[in-house]
Amino acid sequence: MSHSDVVAKTVAACEAAEPRLHAFTRIMGDTAMEEARHLDALAAAGVDLGPLHGVPVVVKDIIDVAGVPTLAGSATRAGATRAKSDAFVVKKLRAAGAVVVAKVNTVEYAFGGWGTNANTGHPRNPWKPDESHTTGGSSSGTGAAVGGGIVPAGLGTDTGGSVRIPAAMCGCVGLKTSIGLVSRAGVVPLSDTFDSIGPLTDTVRRAAEMLDVMQGEDRDDPSTVGIARKDPFAELDRGGAGLRVGRLSDTMLEDASPEVRADFEKSVALLEAAGVTVVPIELPHPMLEYQRRATVIIATDAYAFHADMAESNEAPLNDTTRTRILQGKSFTARDRVLAQRRQVTDINDFLAAIDHLDAVVLPTAPITAMPHTKVNEDDYSVSLYTRMGNYLALCGLSVPIGLTAEGVPTALQILTRRFDDPLALRIGEAFESVRGPFPTPPSL
């Protein structure tokens, strides 16, 4: 099958699924087909751009794609002009042969973990589209499109779990990359302290392929300057033998639902079957404390970026988003400085606690997808197990475990030290190889 055939089939699948999923904000059929025909011509001439040559991808709608407005899931950008150029990461993917077939939905300004958006219509979980279950957020559209099997890969962003949570709820792989590996230039910011870009993919290996080409120094994002590239493939296939990971104790996971805890125990057994040594561990602080401590930094960053809009009564901003942004106004400069100093101490204490370990494993989320009608927007429990990864400057990988009795996914989260992204992928690949193929959701 030619690249044009694959892309045409994917575009048709996006259009067919959209009435049920509400995942797509713009399906880019014409430009995608143009790119695919160019890639066919390169292939006919003997040019192979690598494993992403001709692979359809979607892009979260806070990331610039040339010629398309970046709407950030908000009515405040209804009149936004078309982006003049691709975000750095989109350029990298296109140079490797990936084809952008669509922009996809997001929580407004990426500020929320449930995946809801009253402006655009809530994206629906591909495992329960007709019951209108949550996708997780804020990379909701990417999770729905990849988890639904419509595309093999897409881009999301993660400030407190926004790649890992939708990956977990929609049944796909999600990689929160270490800050500094992937440039955030061309992305609408929320918190430049915690924002990272990551792929959501059908397999761990595909996530490695995406990370391999997404990396690169970019002077428009100072966090990337001087950072050495990481090879995701060097040890990807070495399996779990010789690795030691810490599993959080039952007391630290008491907020997880019974099904989440049960599937986490299954995942631990699968890791051990893959040769990983798993030992119990207690963190220096409860996860709720890490989540709370991160709030000061996220809120003040968000207010710094979006204060003018949030303060304006004329801006058509969703009330929930406005309240979250304005929370940053309640903190003083002293609060911010003390929060940053405490973060450094917390990072050092955490690294000391896992000095004898290669990684830490825990569920990605304490709960699974639920009907939108049951969502409480003031409940932050959905990010209880993920926000610590951002706060402690870690890499995080979410890999599906199985399905609950209701038929929605559960997921394992693997946390590694900053820049140990290849190690997280190695552990995820070892887990995935023992788990076996993950089921696909009902036809959309």
UniProtKB/TrEMBL annotation:
User: What residues does the Amidase domain cover?
Assistant: 5-423
* InterPro entries on file: Amidase, Amidase_CS, Amidase_dom, AS_sf
Q: Where is this region: Disordered?
A: 118-144
Give the matching Pfam families.
Answer: Amidase
Q: Which GO terms describe its molecular function?
A: catalytic activity
What the protein does? Hydrolyzes indole-3-acetamide (IAM) into indole-3-acetic acid (IAA).
Name this protein carries in UniProt:
Indoleacetamide hydrolase
Question: What species does this protein belong to?
Answer: Acuticoccus mangrovi
In the record, what lineage is assigned to the organism producing the protein?
Bacteria, Pseudomonadati, Pseudomonadota, Alphaproteobacteria, Hyphomicrobiales
